[in-house]
Amino acid sequence: MNRRVFMKSGALAMVTMGLSPSFLRRSVYGMELLRGASTHGNRRGKVLICLFQRGAADALNVVVPHGEAAYYRMRPSIAIPRPVSGAAQAAVDLDGFFGLHPSLQPMKELWDRGILAPVHAVGSPSNTRSHFDAQDYMESGTPDNKGTPDGWLNRYLATRGTCEECATGARQAGHQPSPNGAKPQPSPFEAVAMTPQTPRILEGPAPVIAMNGLDEFSIRTNGSEAQRIEALYRTGSADVVHAAGGEMFEAMKILRSANPQQYVPEHSAEYPRSPFGQHLRQIAQLIKADIGLEVAFADVGGWDTHVNQGGATGQLAARLDDFSKSIHALVTDLGDRMADVVIMTMSEFGRTARQNGNGGTDHGHATALFVIGGDVHGGKKVFGRWPGLEPEQLNEGRDLALTTDFRAVFSEVISKHLGAQKLDAVFPGFENDKARWLGLI
Would the CA dihedral through 183, 184, 190, 191 be positive or negative? Predict the structure, then answer.
């Protein structure tokens, strides 16, 4: 096979496998580690699952301040009814002041089990109302700085357990962390995004796999393209594209051993047939395969509810129904493995406190998120200082005000759950005072 055919075949195979173009961006050191990963056998440890609600979820109808009179004055047709006994489609009460949207009823079980911690009035200090910019800032971890080249989750992966040179962003091709600090031979499945391309949050030097789904990946690895890559891999060529093909071949072998096509959820877990539900099902597969997964990412759109948002029923309710049933199924499926897993949700910003003339809400400021897991101090309260919804308490007279910077929440989670130590490298420019942490874990 000549070089041109080799290049074309390798590139085609990588595209058909659904792998991110970032799979090509490996240092020599990273390639050697990945090639040796399949010799490690089963590997089980702490896992963080990040779920991005793209489009700005309406925090006030997700975690409902039913004890706030101003909430009902500003939302005459889309507010969620108070949890009065016998009331249909009412908020699911949590603590007498806050409740969950009725479509989040499956999450109430997680609250009752003490593993669900909502955080309110949280988000980015940036005042942008642009989806693109706000998502970029939340994923880069550097609000109002568009020049950050990598995502905060990748910076965590690149700096945990490394030498100081790596922690300060000096990882270069050929640079190897010191033997005493480096985590030896990571699995190629340490960081997986269930997305067509590498999301902003995972861009950077640390190895990441992005794919549409395990079923597609597995099925296609059994075909002629997989055999072609294996043949190329064994030719001994030193070509860079060949090196990437070698990494992918190793990943294929590990995934085959997990046999994802034969997977059956446990504990009667029922995942929705939606793309989001199936992505969480596949994350559970990877976790239970014990192949070294540490960070998983998935996203779900449809939260930009400018028109006909609805209240207890309608557009937002339908989205929350899929969201909550998918997460509940994941937790159920993982069973006692949730002792080692934390799920963290996020959205780029919230929505206006007042409903608009189209029965919806517009771009706002602070939002709400959920932290779920065996390590989590859940079921006790809604975390974060509540700023109130009276006119003088609103941000710019229109939005829920911010009282918790998202970086404080993310820092606490990766520090207490994953053991991250170099938080100044993960969130550069942020004064990470642990006194600002909320006690989530």
Answer: positive
Sorted by sequence, the CB contacts under 8 Å of residue 295 that are 6+ apart come out as 47, 48, 49, 50, 153, 156, 157, 190, 191, 192, 202
Distance, in Å, from the CA atom of 112 to the CA atom of 427, rounded to the nearest integer, reads 33
Domain 43-212+270-436 has CATH 3.30.70: no
In sequence order, the 6+-apart residues with CB closer than 8 A to the CB of 305 are: 55, 58, 315, 316, 351, 360, 361
Using alpha carbons only, what angle is made at residue 330 by residues 326 and 334, rounded to the nearest 5 degrees?
Answer: 170
Classified as helix, coil or strand, 170 is: coil
Q: In 203-304, which ranges are E strands? A: 209-210, 295-300
Give the pLDDT of residue 85: 67
Measured between alpha carbons, how far is 83 from 2 in angstroms, rounded to an integer? 70
Other C-beta atoms closer than 10 Å to the C-beta of 80 total: 27
Pairing of strands 47-53, 341-347: parallel
Residue 80 φ/ψ, nearest 5 degrees? -85, 125
Task: Walk along the chain (441 residues) in steps of 10 and give the mean pLDDT of each run.
Answer: 39 39 35 38 82 98 98 98 84 98 98 98 98 98 97 96 46 36 66 95 94 68 49 47 53 68 91 97 94 96 98 98 98 98 98 98 98 97 98 98 98 97 97 94 98
pLDDT at 231: 54
Residue 30: both structure tokens together: 């990273």
Distance, in Å, from the CA atom of 253 to the CA atom of 12, rounded to the nearest integer, reads: 19
- Order of strands across the sheet with 191-193? 209-210, 191-193, 295-300, 47-53, 341-347, 367-373, 116-123, 404-405
Dig out the tokens for 113 from the structure.
Answer: 């089990």
CA 188 to each of CA 33, 97, 215, 382: distance values in angstroms, whole numbers, following the listed order: 9, 45, 17, 37
189: left (phi over 0), alpha (psi -120 to 50) or beta: alpha
Q: What SS3 class is residue 122?
A: strand
What pLDDT does residue 246 have?
Answer: 55
What is the sign of the dihedral through the CA atoms of 228, 234, 236 and 240?
positive
**C-alpha 437 chain-centroid distance:** 20
Domain boundaries, the chain: 43-212+270-436
What phi, psi does 305 have (nearest 5°)?
-100, 70
Q: What is the pTM of this model?
A: 0.84
Nearest to 405 by CA among 182, 123, 4, 186: 123
CB atoms within 10 A of CB 21: 13
DSSP structure class, residue 400 = P
Amino acid at 376: V
